[in-house]
Each structure stands twice: as C-alpha cells, then as structure tokens.
Amino acid sequence: MDFDQFPSMGREDLRDFKKGIDSGFRDFSREFGEAIELFFEPLLWFLVWLEQLLQATPWPIIIIVVGALAWLGSRSIKIVVGSVLSFFAIGYFGMWEDTMSTLAIISISTLVCISLGIPTGIMMARSDRAQKIVTPILDIMQTIPAFVYLIPVVMLLGIGKVPGLIAVCIYAMPPVVRLTNLGIRLVEKEALEAADAFGASSTQRLFGVQIPLALPNIFAGVNQTIMMALSMVVIASMIGVAGLGVPVLRSISNQYLALGLMNGLAIVVLAIIFDRVSQEYGARLQKHRQGTQHD
Amino acid sequence: MTDSKIKIESLYKIFGPKPKAVLPLVLEGISKQDLLENHGHVLGLKDINIDIPSREISVIMGLSGSGKSTLIRHINRLIEPTDGRILVDGEDVLGMDKAALQNFRRHKASMVFQKFGLLVHRTVAENVAYGLTIQSVPVEEARERCQKWINRVGLSGFEGHYPSQLSGGMQQRVGLARALATDAEILLMDEAFSALDPLIRNDMQGILLELQEELHKTIVFITHDLDEALRIGDRIAILRDGAVIQQGKPQEIVMRPADDYIFDFIKDINRGRVIEVKTIMTAGEKVKGPDLNHNVLLEEALQIVSDSETREGNVVSDEGEVIGSINLAKIVQALSRPNVEVGEETRYR
Questions:
Q1: Is the pLDDT of residue A209 over 90?
Q2: To the nearest whole number, what is the mean pLDDT of chain B?
Q3: Residues 182-221 of chain A whose Cβ lies under 8 A from any Cβ of chain B
Q4: Beta strands B282-283 and B322-327: pairing type?
Q5: pLDDT one-digit tens code per residue, A49-75
Q6: What is the homologous superfamily of the domain A14-286 according to CATH?
Q7: What is the pLDDT of residue A292?
Q8: Tell me, what DSSP letter sits at residue A242?
Q9: Inter-chain Cβ pairs, chain A and chain B, closer than 8 A
C-alpha cells in the first residue's frame, strides 16, 4: 500500500461528480428561477420603495427622525446628540445617498430576520427535535464563507438587490434564532409551573410568560443580527446592492485609502448608533429585573 | 369530617423511562432500593391513601425526598401519576381532558409555591390578577376583585411595584393573594412559607389562620417543619420515602406516634401548644378550682391552674358540663416527662 498519496476519487470521476451537481442545479434554476424571483418580488418592491423614500426625503427630516428614534430608544441626550452629529458628518463628507441605501437594506433585512427568526427560535424552544434539526443549519449559516452561498443564490436570481438581501439574511439571522431559543429555555421553571397551575393554555403561556420573560435575550439577538447585517454590507455590494459597500469595494480595487476609510467608518458609525440605541432600549425593557428600590 | 373534598386512592408514582412496566413489581412490594438498582426506576409515591376533609387545613409533612411536593402536584395534575385515583368532589381528576383540567385549575384549585413563582415582568397588581387574566375576566372587574385581596394580605400601596422590589415575605403575600383571587375552593400550598425567615414565617402562618377562619377553604399545606404542621394543621399526614406512615389530628400524632421515626420528630416539640386538657384529664368528680374548656391547650392551662389557689381545675365540655379534672402535677408531668406510646409499647424519654 502506498501511504504517500491519499486514495482519492479518480480525476475523471470527480469531474463528472461536480459536473453532475452543477448541471443539476443549473437545470433547477432554469426550471424554477423565474418562480422564485416572482416569489421575492414583493420584497424587492418594498426594498426599492424604502430606498427611494429615504433618498427622496429632505435631509433635515431624516435627521429629525434619526434624533427622535434615538431618543425613543435610549432616552439619553448624549446618544441623540451623537447620532445627529454623525449623520451631519456623513452628509458633509458626501456619503448621504449611499448611507440611505444601506439603511434601507439593513432595515429590510433586519425585519426579515426578525419575522423569520423569532418564530423559528420559539419553535426550537418548544421542541427538542426542532432544536436538533435547526442548530446544525444555524452552524452552517454562520460559518460557511459568504462567497460560497453567494454562488447558488446568484445562479438562481442573478445579480441584484434580492440576492444581496438573501445573503445578508443568511449570515445575520442565526443570532436572533439562537437567542430566542435560549431566552425561552431559560425562563424559570417556577414561573411556568405557576402559569400551568392557574390553568393557562399553551398560547397564554407563550405570550404571557415565556416571550415577555425571554425578551431581554431576544433583544440581544436582534441587536446582534443588526450588527452582523451591517458587517455584510461590503459583500452584498459585490452582487449589486447599492450602499456604502460599493465605494469600499471600488477603493479596494483602486487603492483609494481615503475613500475606503471614510465609507468604512460610516458603516462603523451606523453600527455604533444602532448598537447603543438598541442596547439602551433592551436595558430599559429589563428594568424590573433589578431590585432598584427596595422598600 | 365525613365529607371529604379530596380523596386520594392508592396513588403510585414511579419515575423512570418505563414506569408502567415496573408497576407490577412495585405492587408486589419491591423495595425502593431494589427498584432503583436493578430496574433503574425511582419510586416516588407508594400506595398513598388520604382523605382531605372539606374546609380544613390538612398538612402533609415530610423531609426532603419524602415525595410531599410530588404528592401535592398530583392533586392539580402538574405531575401525572403512574397509578391510582384522585377524586375531587367525587370527580376523577385523572379522567379529565385538557379543557376540563384547565377549567379545574382555573376555578377549583389554586396554588402557592415555595419559590413564589411570581411573574417578574408584572407588577404586584398584575400578578395578583394573573389567575383572572387567564380566565379572561375584564380588566376593570379583575382589578376590583384583586384589590380586596391585596388589602387583605397587607400589600396596599405596593400595587405598582415589581416583585424584585419586595422582600421575600411580601413576595409570598403576593403569591397568596394571587391564589385567593380566583376564589377557588381548594388552596394548594407547597412549602409556601419554607423560604421565609422564622419571624416572617410566623407572621404568614398567622395571616393564613386568620384568613381561614373567615374563608374556610380546603387547604392542603406541604411542609417539612413539624412546628408549622402542628400550628396550622387540623389534620396531619406524615410522609416518608413516598409512603404515608401516619395520619391524624396533631394531638394523636404527638400522643401516639406510629413509630420511632415520628417519635424522633415529636420529642423536641413544645407539647404545651399541642395537647389539650381533655387528653390528660382524670374523668369524674368536680373539684374546687377554675373551669377550663376541654379544648384549652396545656400551655394556657398551666397558667390558669398555677394561678388558682387549689392548683386544680375542672375540665368542662362546650355545653358547660364538668367532664373531668386536672391538677398542676399532671400538667407538668405531661409537659416534661411524657409517656409516649410508640406503636404498641410505652416509652420514656
């Protein structure tokens, strides 16, 4: 036996094997590509609508809205002032339009992640079998290089906003799923037993006890999802998503240091604003947990 | 006494992968240890037969691991039994379908928990109203009905507080008010006061007794504390290794413990607070001295008799008839050197 070389599949076989998969998928995408595209049509429409809305709205209004949202979320003057100043800087350095595009895709992908992720997390928490099935899928979603799943997505849907959105969601959804599952599983047994003892139905149990008590964890998941969505902006721009990622990509290929840095920092600034505001909001949600005033 | 509210009949609970399969072995009387070592199942409850009378406080007492918390959870079926029957007002709880069971839990039996089981995201008022919320009682009406109980347990002014802002004793008051607010006839209390420190526990026992005088609920109270059992129990059942080893009135247990295990329990308790004068009186002639009702406890009798000139007293029935007499020496003897019959034999301390 020769141990220098691994007894691999023959070159020819291997080529046929790969060819088989490739042509199989190509046939699949020819067959169903259009149907799938149609399926995502409303999402695309919504995304385009939001992007145009953000870009068409006069900038002072956007800044006021940003300030108001920051205040509603954090109730902190410091964070409001910080957010408003950051947006002024972004506008001043000529990144306003790209920032609006990025905001649009981040908002939509976060919405998609939440509306799919939270129910999935709840399902996982209620059934051990669901958890066993979903956990490895989440592992794959988080670890597989983004470029790898971009290939089939682009083959199916071509280049454009929707494939970008899907790529962002694949990467950004796992935290909200995981933390929803974890949060519900961590709800105290005593509270659940009390709900049962008073005759709560399983729906009353879920919405009256499990979800409210898991909310801080669910919220941490949403926060993480937003952060991860932002970090995907550059990769998404490779397949045709407009936004701050596009100039970054351009500056990589042309070695424009300043351009790359500015747009990169704009992404960082958005991330910090999202993070601080949502963290503060999450902390306010769980105020009842700390025995603040002990009478 | 004769009308039993809850009737538990030959109840068995076996924990493990296949409880039904090993049930025949248990019915044949396999030992707990044998069952665990050779069959991998844990015997939780063994042939429990208890009648819980209506409108009284029945205490189930046992040390940790005796199965007492498991037992109380069978009454509202938070735990499914392996075998046996549980009748509440003649209806088999185990035969109820999901809807009937939900209804039973909502209207018939409410529960107070050792670790309170409060919902930390709800205020005191919302917690007390929880049972009514589940029943879809309109908010206004629920608030009104709950306010009464909030006041009754002494939490007025704390309606808007969150549980984490309250001390343990106050949290358990919330738990108690929540259980009372559904107006269920049966109150299940699982070591309700065990997590509280002694002074607060004493307070809570007082509140419970006071409420009971007025409400006459059927209360099943679990505890590991004999003093607590003797203080609040109209009847006591003692549980050990998943089986009832003695049940009866507190006095019966103190005067005639069924075995050494219970004897060990009762030897250090304050007998003056349990034994009534009629238990140790000499029947017969009227003597010179004050009259004592036959239900007076020795602690109080000691005071009265030692204050009297003759150091004697008459024991009278509720109708005022003299049924016997008692003297100081007898009381002191009963308090200090009890002759206790353990099973058949008499034992001296």
A1: yes
A2: 89
A3: 190-191, 193-201, 204, 208-209, 212-213, 215
A4: antiparallel
A5: 999 999 999 999 999 999 999 999 888
A6: MetI-like (1.10.3720.10)
A7: 46
A8: -
A9: 78
